[in-house]
Amino acid sequence: MAKISINLKKGNIQKQEDVIIGIDLGTTNSLVAYVPAEGKPARAIKDQEGKNTLVPSIVHFDQTGSIVVGDEAKNKLEINPERTIYSVKRLMGKSYDDVASFQKLLGYRIINEDTEALVKIEVDGKYHTPVTLSAEILKHLKARIENNLGQVVSKAVITVPAYFNDSQRQATRDAGKLAGLDVLRIVNEPTAAALAYGIGLDSSEEKKVVVYDLGGGTFDVSILEIQHGIFDVMSTHGDTFLGGDDFDRAIIEHWMTANNWDTVLLEEDKGFSQSIRLLAEKAKKALSKKDSFSAELKGTQITIRKQDFESMIRPIVERTIESCKKAMKDAGFAPKDIDEVIMVGGSTRVPLVHDMVKAFFEKDLNTSQNPDEVVALGAAVQAAVLAGKQKGVLLLDITPLSLGIETMGGLMDVIISRNSKIPTALARNYTTSIDGQKNLKISVFQGERDLVAHNRKLGEFILQGIPPRPAGIPKIEVQFMLDADGILVVKAKELRSGVEQQITIKSQYGISEAEMAKMLLDSIQNAKSDMEIKALLEAKNEAQNVIVNTDRFVKQHKSWLSEEQISSIVRLLDELKSSTKGEDKDVINQAMTSLNDYATPLAHEAMDKVIQESLSGQDINSTKVD
Length: 626
Ligand code: AMP
Fold this sequence. Notes:
The chain is of the alpha+beta class. Helix content is about 35%, strand content about 25%. The chain has four domains: about 15-190, Nucleotidyltransferase, domain 5; about 245-310, Actin, Chain A, domain 4 (Alpha-Beta Complex), CATH 3.90.640; about 405-520, Sandwich (Substrate Binding Domain Of DNAk, Chain A, domain 1), CATH 2.60.34.10; about 530-615, Substrate Binding Domain Of Dnak, Chain:A, Domain 2. Bound molecules: adenosine monophosphate (AMP). Adenosine monophosphate (AMP) binds near residues 216 and 288.
């Protein structure tokens, strides 16, 4: 493996090993950690006051457009919800369709213009993506550790949930790059938790491990099998809307009923709702140590006993145990097969959670590490392994540069990320962009930049004989198979007809280590401008889709749309078309939003008509949308 260090300040490539940091980029909180020296334990970095290691994963935009992250942003959550973005991890790598079901739970605005495109978040007419917002959190963590150590850091290991798919992982990598970090590895959170306990570092060790992770708003359980230093996720289960917040809500409900308070107060009296929420969380934490909790609210004495709290939350904890049962069934294991159970997330401090998990797996739990920090500490251990600071741990063969194909507008779409273990095989689905398209050119590139023009072209071929269909309908799978010698086979297959074509490429042929290092350096130094160009091209591509779909909609529904409606749509369409000739992504996004805000109710009306007509047994072919 090529070991390349980059000094971002000087902009040169250096031989010496620098610090590699571990980052837990969480839904509620994030942390940064590192291993100070060989043989030393990993350490999470605290804030300037030396108090907290946790950084709330919250980004706030103030009136002047400047950005604050962490505790300062959290303070704005109640008073300025539309400018304060939280839970951005839930949006990573997702399309509007994916997140539509929980949009109402978020206080800020998610944009719905092209349902298949990645989501955007609007604040004051500026459009942000989960990647750029996560990059702000990562920059904050990078600055925190740089201040603490008094040196620049540029390399990181970042953790993601085991269930994250390829595009969610790629979005996390992109966020790192935008924050000025060379992301050496994306590691599964349960794997990191196991590493923090030293599990898997001895390559002769074979273990089956359960990682139970109950945070503020999400729950997941993963079953890992570890052999020869390789961590396999055998199964994972969970609920992305279950966590300590539900415990808080149970306490709030209890107090509201016990005191005959009207639930309207929670909606209408901001001061009251914030106070009761804070008190509920305080009570919950106190009950992890004591048998009862009392406080005063609205001049009334409120109390809660541990036994009542436990009976309220038992059904919630029971749901996590059901997930454990399913995960164990999927992995084909029984409790006696499991060697270790590791507890992650602040909510595992609740004694009832501890007891029920212990009873289910019939063994003592690993709780010696701080459950809030364990994932970041494990990421730091993985970083130390990559830096060669961990003795006796073997580094596996990895691919030194990312491999991908060119997509619309000359963008690089990575299929195998840099630093992936090899051999490996990965596939992704694509489609056509023109009605009736029969051929598709597959151009293969290597490199870290967002535009293929800046990367290295490895080869190209044409998939011929795609059955002609409307744009977006054919399903074309592009598969990359990379063997241990760096030989890459790229195969494209149209899944309905089965037509396929492939090429074989020597990916490492004709490139020196110095050239590879330069490509990496360029990608980090140009990350911001690359990402801006990418965002502009993506906005133009989406606008193109919206234009095609709207044109189609107007043609199909001309019969019942009023003249005024048609002329409004045409006017908004023209504005969108002219915006795509410019170079400002926010103007394009704004034009898409305006068109969408106007056309969405009409699209719903069209849908209702189709349903009504089908119920009354009429022929609906004339209004069928393909
Ligand atoms: P995480 O997302 O892992 O940071 O978990 C945060 C959740 O853990 C929040 O719901 C906290 O209220 C909860 N939590 C933190 N400390 C405790 C504690 N001592 N007892 C119960 N819950 C806690």
